[in-house]
Amino acid sequence: MTDTLPPCPECSSAYTYEMGALLVCPGCGHEWSLIAAEPTDGGEDGVIRDAVGNVLADGDTVTVIKSLKVKGSPTGIKAGTKVRNIRLVEGVDGHDIDCKVDGFGPMQLKSSVVKKA
Length: 117
Prior knowledge:
By secondary structure, this protein is mainly β. The protein has one helix at 34-37, and strands spanning 17-19, 22-24, 31-33, 62-64, 82-83, 87-88, 95-101, 105-110, 114-116.
């Protein structure tokens, strides 16, 4: 790892710290992956990775790593929810996983909010 950590992409705070494979901002609570923060050379076209950098494929099982709000639902998807048999798609607005979440039905998720189970 590097000696200096990048500032928070949300609030630009310089006081970020590592927690496992994620970087955390104590100021705003934003969590992100160091792999997502580092610029890539663009050599991996078409490869979709989860929040910690694992390559995802059709049919994988993933776990949601942070609670998500769902329109029209009083409760959202809680962190730790397992989603089975995902499909990778060219989604709109970064939503590149097509899946069926138990209790919510079919929806699209961003690969940045899941990790491979």
